[in-house]
């Protein structure tokens, strides 16, 4: 035997080995046979055991147990073309109405395409292999395997331009304030068309859920706002109001003895904008805070290629975005959001009763006063 090479006797210390195995194990792998008509939540609990299925089970259980506790304020980061695929009306609207989502950061594109449904426009499921040149010649728009008439875009643009010329929009907004006002009119349009429950923005309006867009110019909504400014209209969207309002939401959730949970679908700007609330609170404003309590993301990105760098739970912890003491209450599920979201929604709706609506949109002025007051104290301390 090599003098410097350790020797491992696989037959020694069996009791210690079994104790170690018991310590790292969660449950014995012995799932039941999948039966006809099994409920989605039961399937997730009993059969989704390992690999990304295991992570999805953990995500569902974490969301139901921790996120949906009465004291947890839940933020949703939304990227990828989910609303055109119908996931707004099938999943996000029910989650909002059940009080399971308290505030949102979304791409503008998701909110623009969400508007089609409130206006009674149709989108269709097709296939991924379509003749794109023929689609263009026939004025058909494609989002992978989703198709719709070009007139949907023109009609939605016309709706926004007519709406945003109104007197109520001739001022400066945060994106949440802007979307809340838009949601008011979309809710009215849903009632007129009989398409109630189709629109994410209309549901957010009814339930008082602030909806932010971290890049307001990066969508057809922003493009129409820009066009109206060329016409001389006074509508302005100030994204820096968003930075402070989202920080105020998180700060208040923690300062009042509650918890903050972030639910991230996809990546991009919404992901970072939601997570940067904690560095804004700690690093920039100088307020004492440890990070988000619960972290759940569904993504197909990888940290080694740059698509997920800084945003895995452990990396995010180094930025102050995630409380290091709560790192076990984090899950990264490497799975397409269009697969994960319906299952997480079904699990939550099955396992938890609706929560009272927080209506954070109504509380934003008071939350901002609290944040400004606390920051003034920090500035006074620095001056002294």
Q: Secondary-structure element sequence? A: HHHEHEHEHEEHEHHEHEHEHHEHEHH
As laid out across the biggest beta sheet, the strand order is 7-2-1-9-10-11
- The best one-word shape is globular
Q: Could you describe the largest sheet, including whether it forms a barrel? A: 6 strands, parallel
CATH architecture of the domain at 51-121 and 170-213 and 237-383: 3-Layer(aba) Sandwich
CATH class category name of the domain at 51-121 and 170-213 and 237-383: Alpha Beta
Instruction: List how many beta strands DSSP finds.
Output: 11
CATH T-level topology of the domain at 51-121 and 170-213 and 237-383: Deoxyhypusine Synthase
CATH homologous superfamily heading of the domain at 51-121 and 170-213 and 237-383? Deoxyhypusine synthase
Question: Any overview of this molecule?
Answer:
It is a single chain. With 384 residues, this protein is α/β, with parallel strands linked by helices. It has a domain of 262 residues: Deoxyhypusine Synthase (3-Layer(aba) Sandwich), CATH 3.40.910.10. Helices cover 51% and strands 11% of the residues. It is built from 16 helices and 11 strands. Strands 7-2-1-9-10-11 form a 6-stranded parallel beta sheet, sandwiched between helices. A hairpin with a 2-residue loop joins strand 4 and strand 5. Helix 2 packs across helix 15 and helix 8 packs across helix 9.
């Amino acid at each position: 035997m090599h003098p410097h090479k350790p020797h491992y006797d696989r037959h020694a210390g069996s009791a210690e080995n079994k104790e170690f195995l018991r310590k790292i194990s969660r449950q014995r792998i012995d799932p039941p046979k999948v039966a006809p008509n099994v409920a989605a939540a039961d399937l997730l609990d009993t059969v989704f055991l390992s690999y990304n299925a295991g992570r999805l089970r953990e995500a569902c259980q974490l969301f139901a147990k921790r996120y949906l506790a009465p004291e947890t304020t839940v933020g949703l980061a939304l990227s990828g073309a989910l609303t055109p695929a119908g996931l707004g009306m099938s999943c996000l609207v029910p989650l909002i109405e059940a009080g399971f989502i308290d505030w949102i950061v979304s791409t503008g594109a998701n909110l623009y395409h969400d508007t089609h449904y409130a206006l009674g426009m149709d989108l269709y499921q097709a296939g991924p292999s379509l003749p794109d040149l023929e689609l263009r010649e026939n004025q058909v728009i494609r989002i992978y395997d989703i198709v719709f008439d070009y007139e949907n875009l023109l009609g939605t643009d016309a709706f926004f331009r007519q709406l945003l010329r109104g007197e109520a929009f001739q001022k400066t907004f945060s994106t949440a304030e802007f979307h809340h006002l838009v949601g008011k009119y979309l809710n009215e349009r849903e009632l007129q068309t009989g398409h109630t429950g189709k629109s994410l923005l209309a549901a957010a309006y009814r339930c008082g859920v602030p909806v932010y867009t971290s890049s307001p110019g990066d969508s057809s909504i922003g493009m129409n706002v820009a066009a109206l400014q060329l016409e001389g209209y006074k509508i302005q969207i100030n994204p820096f109001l968003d930075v402070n309002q989202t920080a105020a939401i998180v700060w208040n959730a923690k300062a009042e003895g509650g918890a903050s949970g972030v639910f991230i679908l996809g990546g991009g700007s919404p992901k970072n904008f939601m997570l940067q609330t904690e560095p804004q609170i700690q690093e920039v404003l100088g307020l004492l805070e440890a990070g988000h309590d619960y972290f759940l993301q569904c993504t197909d990105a990888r940290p080694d290629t740059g698509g997920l760098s800084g945003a895995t739970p452990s990396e995010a912890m180094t930025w102050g975005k995630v409380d290091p003491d709560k790192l076990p209450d984090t899950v990264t599920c490497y799975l397409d959001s269009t697969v994960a979201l319906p299952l997480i929604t079904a699990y939550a709706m099955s396992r938890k009763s609706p929560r009272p609506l927080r209506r954070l949109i109504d509380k934003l002025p008071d939350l901002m006063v609290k944040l400004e007051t606390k920051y003034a104290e920090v500035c006074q301390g620095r001056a002294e």
